[in-house]
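queue> holo job accepted (protoporphyrin IX containing FE)
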Amino acid sequence: MSTAVRQSGVRERSQKRTAYRFPPGFQRNVLWYAFRKVRPANPIFLFQHLNQTYGDIAHYKLAHNHIVFLNHPDYIREVLVVQNDNFIKERTVRRTKMLLGEGMITSEGSVHRAQRLAAQPAFHRQRIGEYAAIMVEEAARTRDSWRGGEQRDIAADMMHLTLNVVARTLFATDLRQEVSELAAAINRIMSRYNFLIMLPAAEWLVHLRPPGLAAFVRERNRIDAAVYRMIDAHCRSGRDRGSLLDLMIAASSADDIRSRKSLRDQVITMFLAGYETVANALSWTWYLLSENPDCELKFHSEVDRVLQGDLPSFETVPRLRYTENVMAESLRLYPPAWAMGRYARNDFALGEFFLPARTTVLISQFITHRDPRYFPDPLRFDPNRFSPESKAQRTKFTYFPFGAGVRQCIGESFAWMEGVLILATLAQKWKLKLVPGHQIEPQPLITLRPKYGMWMQVEPR
Ligand code: HEM
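queue> job finished
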C-alpha cells in the first residue's frame, strides 16, 4: 500500500471519529465513578446518578465500549421503534444465553421471527380466555392453603403460584410435584446472575467449571432435566392439545439433537419470562396495598361488589377496573423488567447526537416511570393515574413495563389477566400486612425482586 493511500485511510478514519457527537457524561471510565459516587452492585444508583447529573441522555465508557443511557420518550421511541432495525439485544441479554440458549428473548432476525410466529396462537385473546379458569383454580388453591395469623414469604408463594399457572396453561403440564425444587434451582441461578454477567469470558469458563460456575451448571442441569422430562412426556403422549408446547414441537424442524436443544431453549425462556415477572409484579402489589390502606379499601370494595362472593372469571375481568389500575401503578413503581438494553449495528443519530456502531443503549423503566415530568409526585402510589382520562393525557413511551416495538412482550395480555385474577381471588378471603420491621429493598437482577423476600402477615377479611 502506498504511503499516500495509507495516509488518506488514516485521515478518513480520524475524520469519522471526530464526526461523532457524544452526549454529556462521565469523562473518566465508569468504574472510577462507580466506586467513588455510587454503589457498584446496584446499577439503578448509577442510572439515577446519570439522570440527575446529565438529564435525558448521558454517555460513558466501559473499557473501550460506548454506552448511552436514555430517559426521554422521543429517544426511547427512536431506539425501540423507529430505528429498531439497527439494534440487537445488548451484551447482558446475550449473556443470558448461558441459561436461556436461543429462545425468543435472546434470538435475533429470522430465528426470532420464526419463534414469535410459532408461539403467537398461544397468546390470542381467545386462548387467553381459556387460561382464565386455570389461573383462578391455582389462585384458589393457594388461597385455601393459607391460615389466618400466619406470616409467609409472599414472594415465594407468588413464584410457586405463577410457575404452576405457566406450566398448566402454556405447557399443559402439572408441575406441582416438582415446583418447589424447580423454583429453588431457578432462585439459586438468579442469585449468581450478576456475578456471571460481570465475569470476563463467563461463557467459556462455564466449560472449565471453576467453583461458582460449577454450581451454575449443576442448577442448570437440574432445570434442563425437568424441561426434557416435560418435552418427552408430551411427545410420548402423541396428543396435540394445542398448547404452546405443541405449537413449538410442530414448528421444530426434525427429531434430532439440535431441534431438541432448540425446543429446550424455547421452553425455558417462556417459563422464566412468564412466571418470574408476574410473581414479582404481584409481590410488589401486595406490598404497596399494605402500605396504602385507602387504596386497599377501594380495591377490596371493588372485589366484593363485582364478584358478590363468586370466584372471578374471564368475563368479570373487564369489570375489575380498579384492580387493574392497582396493578398498573405497581408496574410503574416496581417494574419487574426494570431496564432494557440494545446494541447498535451501525452508526446512528439520536437527536443532535451522532453515535458509533457498537454503542450500547440502556433504557430503564424504573427511572422513566419515576420521572416527575410524566408522573407528578412520582413516589406516591396512586392507581387513579391509570384512569382512562389520565392515560389519554400522558405522553407515549413514558410508561412501558412491557417494552415496545417488535420486541414488545408477547405475554402482556396473559400477564394482565393473570395478575387481576390472582389479586381478586386472594383478596376475597385475605388481607396481607407487611411484617413490621421487615426490610424492603428492590434488587435489580434479571427482574426486580424484593431482596429479602416479602414477609407478610395473613389476616382474614
Ligand atoms: C408483569 C409481567 C411481565 C412483564 C413486566 C414483562 C416485561 C417484558 C418486557 C419489558 C419485554 C421486552 C424486553 C426487551 O425488549 O428487551 C418482554 C419480552 C418478552 N416477554 Fe414479557 N413480561 C411479563 C410477562 C410475560 C409473560 C406472562 C410471558 C409469557 C407467558 C412473557 C414472555 C415474554 C417473551 C417471550 C418476551 C420476548 C419477546 C420478543 O423478544 O419477541 N412475558 N417482557
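queue> The mean pLDDT is 87.
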